[in-house]
Amino acid sequence: MNVRKMRLYDTENIYSGDDRDEFEKDYARLIQSPAFRRLQGKSQVFGAGSGDYYRTRLTHSLEVSQIAREVARRLGKQYEFLSRKEHPGLMIDPEVVECASLAHDLGHPPFGHKGEEVLNRLLQEEHGLKYEGNAQNFRILMFLEKRAGSGSGLDLTAAVLLAINKYPFCIDEPGRLKGVYSKEWERIDFLRQTWGMPGTSATLEAQLMDLCDDIAYSTHDLEDGIRAGKIQMDRGFFEDDRLVAHVLQEITNDPSYSEANWENVDMSTMVKQVLIHYLEQWEVIYAECDREPSRTRREMKARWVRKFANEVGIIDDPETGWKKVTLVRDGLMNLELLRTMEILKKLAWVTLIKDFRVQRLHKRSEVMIERLWGSFKNFETGRLIIPPDWLESYEAQKDKWSWERLAADYISGMTDAYAEKVYAEFFASRSGSIYERD
């Protein structure tokens, strides 16, 4: 049996018995799923609908998949051990990485990270449950989504499921902030054991998807920020000590921050150097593009994507005894470039997410999600206002899932616009017809 192409439920391919490769079937199942389509209406940085230019979760996912697929092809030619297929978790298939990239953000609720934060707080305070976007991915893929012949989500191949699983542990364990909900973890852990995956190591494909996600964040979000005028391409902006201080604070406050990665580095000096280099590169490209801002933004983004993508490689990880996908130079982890990527990610964060106007939008979205939750959280009242198919699903599965979890599923699956629509129906004076189609 090919353990990479095994499915948890349709083991005999009764419902997919055609001549397509199994990963091609996964791709089709993903892009034709409602959860994937809804990404077009979910925020990336700016609210979905803020303008035709800005990225949504859908366009972000497509861009991550393109970067990951191309890097996967290069790595397959560059590293001979990949062709030996020594272990199912030590392989990189471009089609698998592409599918994982397309699916990696399905679990994000409306209104971006603020929506995730609010739902998690409400569920924990009231019911001791967690909500987290990566865990919700598997809730969607393995339960909520439906396809012909499957009552268990999209029933993707083991390779794709494990390529999405960048946090390979159960989130319900004490102290875990990310992971997989316990019900789905039982099946993911079964696949990991079948493959013989060591400890909490992720497959190479999951690591590559995660790194390409970071590449996209550190380049594409900055392009959007420049376009919106929130990142001003002048020395006054980039040499402001307050900007440097804010970037530094975000780096050190990040839960993934490691002092070892910044050992013997003057962090303040490096942040200043990276910011000034970014501006100076902009000035050079601006002149090359005949002082045309739109062309400059695109070329700037393209060069940084190429810079990071060309440095992606694979090294031995002595801490785990596994392999690590990271930025590599001369066979070693390229810490300088990794730090540069982190600085650019935090530049996007402090100039976009921390902007007071964006924070006002976040406050508005927080109020909406809190009030929507208050409307749906109690079964006796919530069942009257939730769509019938959701109620039927709950009745069929209530021995496995609580009403509170299903109510969170419903709210988290909304697009930004649909969340506002339902909120307006409940709490705003409006006219309309009950025959409007949801």
TrEMBL record:
Keyword Cytoplasm: no
SUPFAM superfamilies: HD-domain/PDEase-like (SSF109604)
Protein name: DNTP triphosphohydrolase
Entry-linked InterPro entries: dGTPase, dGTPase-like, HD/PDEase_dom, HD_domain, PHydrolase_assoc_dom
An example Gene Ontology biological process: dGTP catabolic process
UniProt cross-references to NCBIfam families, sorted A to Z: dGTP_triPase
Matching PANTHER family: DEOXYGUANOSINETRIPHOSPHATE TRIPHOSPHOHYDROLASE, DEOXYNUCLEOSIDE TRIPHOSPHATE TRIPHOSPHOHYDROLASE
GO molecular function: dGTPase activity
Domain HD, chain residue ranges per copy: 57-218
Gene3D superfamilies: Hypothetical protein af1432 (1.10.3210.10)
Database matches in PROSITE patterns: HD
Pfam family, one: HD_assoc
Organism field: Cohnella luojiensis
Residues making up the signal peptide according to the UniProt record: none
Keywords: Hydrolase
SMART domains in the record: HDc
